[in-house]
Design brief:
about 350 residues, alpha+beta, Rossmann fold, 3 domains, two-stranded antiparallel ribbon, 12 helices, 8 strands, extended, Sec1-like_sf, Sec1 family-domain-containing protein, Sec1-like_dom2, Sec1-like
Length: about 350
């Protein structure tokens, strides 16, 4: 902007009572006269040679400052004992594109943990990328000590060891089918502690999955998907699955074959707890039941969700293709666990 235009803009700003801020960018635009604020319309009338002009030019200042910075998100807590960087492309970046940026992000995240809890005294690892990460951590420690001698970190009293496992140690495991309840939830796209389920599977929009009044209803068996629930198309709902759900924390690591019996047992217990309301005679007993009602309803909702999910998983696991693939995997890798342990500790 030329000096003459800038001075003209300053004069116009003073006329319309717009405060001038130095080093603020000036914007020039064309607006309809009726869209201008009253002071600007009045100023334009005084300086316009034609009052019939439908458009007028206005130079005005932009007084809003926007600062764009970088936020290091680092590790995301998915569980009380599980942290993740959630870099989905890290395997491809490291092993195919030869881009080690993900290793740098891991090192930065671990350094942040060490700033909070102290230096980890013992670092163990297996694999080339694990060695690169360990070397990078040691270099960052030295750089921190050189840059700020007063900020030297003490030895951690909470973390005694860091074990780094390179994916190259065991390529096969992610390709095999998991047989735990949580592992089979991958059929529904579990990601970041959430799973996308049909609304009718959660039981919130389906009459077939309403709270049970007896122990032998839907929760008693995990075999066979409800035809009414499967036939009605429904929107997706995000359901959070972590240890805050007591039922999920109990069954998440169990083999799927035993999940049905556990859901049956929980359904019977909840039904018994609901029936206890008929035995409440005194005010104290009624108050005690009402105090438990919130937990019972939350547990009942959780049971309804996991029953529907188990039915959906069962519909997949009884299929011929699933069992054929599982048979091939088990016959191909019968000693996979032994091989992995041998690689790790020898």
């Amino acid at each position: 902007m030329t000096m003459a235009k800038r001075r003209a803009a300053e004069r116009l700003a003073r006329k319309v009572n717009v405060p001038h801020a130095p080093y603020v960018p000036w914007l020039q635009g064309t607006r309809r006269r009726k869209d201008l604020p009253p002071p600007a319309r009045q100023a334009r009338r005084r300086n316009s040679s034609s009052s019939d002009c439908p458009f007028c030019s206005l130079i005005y200042c932009q007084s809003t400052h926007i600062t764009i910075g970088q936020y290091a998100l680092n590790l995301i807590p998915l569980e009380d004992d599980l942290l993740s960087l959630e870099i989905d492309s890290s395997f491809k970046d490291i092993y195919f594109d030869r881009d080690s940026t993900a290793i740098y992000y891991v090192a930065k995240a671990l350094m942040e943990i060490q700033r909070m809890h102290g230096l980890i005294p013992r670092i163990l690892g297996k694999g080339d990328c694990a060695k690169s990460l360990a070397d990078l951590l040691l270099r960052m420690r030295r750089e921190l000590a050189v840059d700020d001698t007063a900020a030297s970190l003490p030895i951690s009293q909470k973390i005694d060891s860091l074990i780094i496992l390179d994916r190259s140690v065991d390529y096969a495991t992610p390709l095999l089918t998991q047989l735990t309840y949580e592992g089979l939830l991958d059929e529904f796209g579990k990601k970041k502690a959430f799973v996308d389920l049909d609304a009718n599977m959660t039981g919130l929009n389906s009459s077939t999955l309403q709270p049970n009044t007896g122990p032998a209803d839907g929760a008693a068996s995990a075999g066979g998907l409800s035809t009414a629930a499967a036939a009605v198309p429904a929107k997706k709902r995000k359901v959070q699955l972590n240890n805050s759900d007591r039922l999920f924390s109990e069954i998440r690591d169990l083999n799927f074959a035993v999940v049905g019996s556990i859901l049956n047992r929980v359904a019977r217990r909840i039904n018994t707890d609901y029936e206890a309301r008929h035995q409440a005679k005194t005010v104290g007993q009624i108050r005690e039941f009402v105090g438990k009602l919130g937990d019972l309803q939350a547990e009942h909702t959780s049971l309804r969700i996991h029953t529907a999910v188990a039915e959906g998983i069962m519909a997949t696991t009884v299929g011929e293709n699933f069992n054929r693939a599982l048979e091939i995997q088990q016959s191909t890798c019968p000693e996979k666990a032994v091989v992995v342990l041998t690689l790790l500790f020898h």
